[in-house]
Amino acid sequence: MTLIPTLREVPADADIKSHQLLLRAGFIRQTASGVYTYMPLAKRTLDKIESIIREEMENAGAAELLMPALQPAELWQESGRWFTYGDELMRMHDRHGRDFALGATHEEVITSIVNDDVQSYKRLPLTLYQIQTKFRDEKRPRFGLLRGREFIMKDAYSFHTSAESLDEVYNKMYTAYMNIFTRCGLDFRAVLADSGAIGGKDTQEFMVLSEIGEDTIAYSDTSDYAANIEMAECVVDYKRTTEEENELEKISTPNQKTIAEVSSFFNVNSQKCIKSLVFKVDDEPVMILVRGDHDVNDIKVKNVLNAKSVELCDHEETEEILGCPTGSLGPVGVNGKLKVYADHAVKVMVNAVCGANEDGYHFSNVNPGRDFEVDFYADFRFITEGDPSPDGQGRIRFARGIEVGHIFKLGTRYSEAMDANYLDENGRAQNYIMGCYGIGVSRTLSAIAEQFNDENGLVWPKNIAPYHVHLIPVNMKDDAQVSLAEELYELCKANRYDALLDDRSERPGVKFKDSDLIGLPIRVTIGKRASEGIVEVKVRKTGESFEVDKANLLPLINDLLK
Ligand code: ATP
Ligand code: MG
């Protein structure tokens, strides 16, 4: 007995395949925005994903625990994140008015636990993990399980006495993640990611390749280099032309604001224009310059300037700061008022065009160093397709990805803030060196559904399908069919295959449609020839079908699920 409420219609509010199919095939139901019930089929699939994760975590030497979702505010105050995490953290108070948060992640809790119970260097390294529900009040919950407000995560944390020991566990986790996503059947890539201004340098994300992915992956067309576009470094090999510097000119440019408008007005390539943006960097306004055909990467700005927050100023703010709205901004005359930072590509520009900080005016023949000073040059832009790959091999291409996992060297970010220490060989207190390793378990379920489907429904890879075999007696009024179906159900069970028996008195067409929609790897149809002991086997993925005697069914299933 189970509950698989399939739907014929495509739900109106679901706009990606995995969300539509998981709803239609009765895997999930929405309980509130970004909050889902995992129906029996999804629960089975989750269990399978989780058991793969558990095996690989244990292989990597991690021990499972389970921490509370309900966390006292004091822990988050100690780490400082109570004040910086923002609205994503679900906050509440108890009947005594004490503040709590619903765990968005567990660095605080685990650090406090380990700090209480692991005093000696002799007990380190130590890696602990859990599979648990997380809460994040996402601004835009969407795409079903891909971005929920309540979701299942595997989170692991490691504690070390040295950077080398952290490297070792980090590498083990990397291997475990490669194994996990491979065993889930996914087409994915491990990519270099942004570690932010804090924490260690190494961090990698595991991205399932998919057009609907929110992240862009920059990868080399010839090597295995792959990075999140947020952090892909640009190669600095810009060449200065031999063009002579001309005299600076101020030109009236009514209504010419965008780079496209300005470059066509001046009849020059956008590479000849300087794009000038004013950002508030930790509340201080600064001007960032990039070449017209490039875009400012605010994550790089944040990292290069070692800032906590970076926000683009709007019209009103630039008006207030430079007396001019965005659209006519430029670096000439700005030195002394604002710091001016520029991307490396700007350094070699000759006779460029930029805004004059006066509505409706631009300068032409602008030359860095002559007409304005740059406080320093750095890599401030997004890499683009066709750029040389940072590893020196090949050119950059883009792909979209869904982030299903993330491994991260935290260093002493939390142990320092929370004063969490062990005693070293000399009895001196030292901060734990930490790593953390997350997998979006419910997101992985969706990512698999997104990657494995066809026009008729889901097509589960055999390792994580909710059941291996779908048994379909065509006519429930036919005793021979019913008893053979039951016999085969027992046969599967005895041989450790999970079988789903469709014993509804529905028309065969309905049963077959539902079976395609649900997408179990093997369908066994028990029809007219049941009395002779003959059934039809159909492979969901390839559509191949075979008529077999019941005596040969098990070897065939063994073979198909090998
Ligand atoms: P994102 O950039 O997608 O918001 P994140 O950087 O906030 O992810 P982490 O804090 O690293 O994510 O969390 C670890 C993993 O948890 C992620 O790799 C992702 O697979 C999963 N995850 C994060 N947020 C969500 C969410 N809202 N719904 C489902 N899974 C999520
Ligand atoms: Mg997030």
Question: What does this entry look like structurally?
Answer:
The chain is of the alpha+beta class. Helices cover 27% and strands 29% of the residues. It has 15 helices and 31 strands. Strands 3, 7, 8, 9, 10, 11, 12, 21 and 24 form a nine-stranded mixed beta sheet that branches. A five-stranded mixed beta sheet has the order 16-14-15-17-20. A hairpin with a 7-residue loop joins strand 29 and strand 30. The longest helix is centred in the first third of the chain and has 21 residues. The radius of gyration is 29 Å and the shape is globular. The protein starts with 16 loop residues before the first helix and ends with a helix. The model has no long low-confidence stretch (mean pLDDT 95). Bound molecules: adenosine-5'-triphosphate and magnesium ion. Adenosine-5'-triphosphate binds next to strand 8, strand 21, strand 24 and helix 12.
Mean pLDDT: 95
- Which compounds are bound in this model? adenosine-5'-triphosphate, magnesium ion
**Strand residue percentage:** 25-35%
Regions with pLDDT < 50 over 5+ consecutive residues?
none
Rg from Cα: 29 Å
Annotation field: number of helices:
15
So what's the overall shape?
A: globular
The rounded distance between the terminal residues' Cα atoms is 28 Å
Number of strand elements: 31
Instruction: Determine the structural class based on helices, strands and strand pairing.
Output: alpha+beta
Biggest sheet, in brief?
9 strands, mixed
Helix content: 25-40%
